[in-house]
Amino acid sequence: MAPWLSRHRSTLVLAVLLVVLSIYSLFVGVIDLDTSAILAGDFEAIELLLISRLPRLLAIVCTGVGMSVAGLIMQQLCMNKFVSPTTGATISSAQLGILLALVFWPSATLWQRTILAFVFAILGTWVFVWFIQRIQFKDVVMVPLVGIMFGNVVGGITSFLAFRFDMTQSLSSWLVGHFSMVLRGRYEIVWLTLPLVVLAFVFANHFNIVGMGRDFSKNLGVPYNLVLFLGLTIAAMITASVVVVVGAISYIGLIVPNLVSMFKGDKIRGTLVDTALFGALFVLVCDLIGRLVIHPYELPIELIIGIIGSVLFVGLLLYRLNHGRKAIRLGAAGASSCAVSAQSAVQKKEGE
Amino acid sequence: MKIRQLLKQYDGKTVVDGVSFEIPKGKVLSLIGPNGAGKSTVMGMISRLVARDAGLVEFEGKDIKDWKSHQLSQRLAILTQSNHIQMKLTVRELVAFGRFPYTRGRNTPEDEQIIQQAIDYMELGPFQDRFIDELSGGQRQRAYIAMVIAQDTDYVLLDEPTNNLDIYHATNMMKIARRLCDELGKTVIMVLHEINYAAFYSDYICAFKDGKVAKFGTVEEVMTKETLSEIYRVDFEIQMVEGKPLSIYY
Fold first, then answer.
1. Chain A hits for B189, Cβ within 8 Å
2. What sign does the dihedral A289-A294-A299-A303 (CA atoms) show?
3. Which residue in chain A has the smallest CA separation from B74?
4. Cβ A199 vs Cβ A231: under 8 Å
5. Cα distance between residue A14 and residue A263, in whole Å
6. Quick check: A344 and B128 CB within 8 A?
7. What is the tens place of the pLDDT at every residue in A216-252?
8. CA–CA distance from B187 to each of A201, A292, B156, B175, B207 (Å)?
9. What is the mean pLDDT of residues B172-180?
């Protein structure tokens, strides 16, 4: 019991925090909602909960889980810690897909629009990765820079088309992510992230091996290109289903996987659950801040995430500068994955 | 394992030209030669990492191309110079990947036991929960070898295993290669730059020059003044040390 507990301590803490804050978030909003009304069977209160508050919470959780896992997959597969749906042109490609649907296929349903967003997100990510594989940059920073440039080119095309067809208004809701429009019947697409995350968990070891390089994969009999593009497709689909519902949410896919890997390493099986939980928690906290600072109004979540995210990101860079890539150890066995670890960590300390 | 008339061209330039030899089972074979002689490319083609333009690599009576990738990875392991991997895996997690060809990631208690044996064999017990990017070059190289041991293949291919290692670690590396053959009964094939390591630790040497096999034979057959001088185009002296012909060049 004890080694199990210490191994999963971070997961447990994150899960408990997430549950507590989730329940709290249900009671934050313009209209007061209290438990006694719900328990008393107050129709309006239950209605509010089911139509607005609960969908919002679920959308937040799916977004946090989805974007951070998408970031984790992309970082592993591209062997670069600075690649994410934002810096890998995935988000901007999904936005282009949505705009094209709005312009050329006005009668498209939400589902049809989603499919177009999927196709473009996948294509955009593939093109980006194909490109960085062809060029083989030696410098780690070049890869995200190219991604940002590529994303801006795609974003430029999107803006141009939006201007030409008078769509800037409707586009803006997909450019800046926010949860204020999440209502029952309009957000369910974001649930698609969950089966995709499960799929990512199933292929976690494959992604790890592909992340070690082409030769390494071949040696272990893993088809490199197939797994690479499968993983990118999963990441792009997760991203697109979030963008369609809440719009662009940047930084999570970059920061959350990096922070978790500093504590728990890069073995995806060991970090995926923590990454997902931490992502959900991060988005939830940012959303609560956005809802509370100028209550009863609210700030778009993208703004809050942008501020907190960039501060954390600078912190991350400074930490890397001072400490290199050395991992942070949580207690005795926080960062390791087997039962023997507690013992050997103690030995290590004695040795020091 | 038979290699027949291998050919490889890059941009119209022939880098490997009609290479044929046979890999003796259960022995240590070293591929040596000057830079650009094609030894690493041949190694790549033997291990299916590099596509060949012509020729045949026959492994257990079947062309290596016709092997199913995951079946081949249970018989033949290749370690390239990919030690720049920037990934936070613990030694144990890395070694566990050696079982992947068998279990696709679902390791049984027996697999865990094999992993533990591999770690112990490479004397990595005290480091098994350390991240590989926190280890020294020599320790990291041993972690990769432990993975190959866990992969439990008959054939082990090492592409310049002593690269970037100091004399102490490089010599240890060579002793490990010898033990893989003597104690674990594996066929070891290495690409080496240091001729004397090849001479001291292998059974056979295949010397390359200009994309062709210049000489294939036992250590004694290849390590002669005439052969080496011709391949490397510098003067050599051969001296016997502990019954092995070592070369002095200047």
1. none
2. negative
3. A220
4. no
5. 13
6. yes
7. 888 898 999 999 999 999 999 999 998 888 888 888 9
8. 36, 68, 6, 14, 18
9. 91
What residue type is assigned to position A151 of the chain? Answer: G
Of B164, B121, B113, B159, the closest CA to residue B143 belongs to B121
Q: Is the pLDDT of residue B230 over 70?
A: yes
Q: For the residues of A29-60, what is the DSSP string, one character each?
A: SSS---HHHHHTT-HHHHHHIIIIIHHHHHHH
Is the minimum CB–CB distance between B48 and chain A shorter than 8 Å? yes
Chain A CB within 8 Å of residue B185 CB: no
pLDDT tens for B20-64 read 888 888 899 999 988 888 888 888 898 888 888 888 888 888 888
Q: Give me the CATH code for the A2-351 domain, please.
A: 1.10.3470.10
State which amino acid sits at residue A202: V
> Cβ contacts of residue A203 below 8 Å, gap of 6+?
A227, A230, A231, A234
Q: What is the Cα–Cα distance from A336 to A327, expressed in whole angstroms?
A: 11
Domain ranges of chain A: 2-351
Residue B57 pairs in a beta bridge with B3
DSSP per residue, A264-322: H-S-HHHHHHHHHHHHHHHHHHHHHHHHHTTTTS---HHHHHHHHHHHHHHHHHHHHHH
In this complex, is the C-beta atom of A233 within 8 Å of any C-beta atom belonging to chain B?
A: no
Residue A208 CB coordination number (10 Å):
26
Distance (Å, whole) CA A94 – CA A51: 27
Say whether B105 and A206 touch across the interface (CB within 8 A).
yes
Cis ω for the linkage preceding A195 (within 30 of 0): no
Q: Identify the pLDDT of residue A212.
A: 87
- How far A20 CA sits from the closest chain B CA (Å)? 31
Please tell me the distance in Å from A7's CA to the nearest CA on chain B: 13
Question: Beta B28-32 vs B187-191: how paired, if at all?
Answer: parallel
From the CA of A140, how many Å to the nearest CA of chain B? 11
Specify which residues A351 forms β-bridges with: none
Contacts of A205 in chain B (CB under 8 A): 97, 100, 104-105
- Average pLDDT over chain A reads 83
CA separation for the pair B100, B155 (Å, rounded): 17
Residue A131, both tokens: 């490109």
pLDDT over threshold 50, residue B181: yes
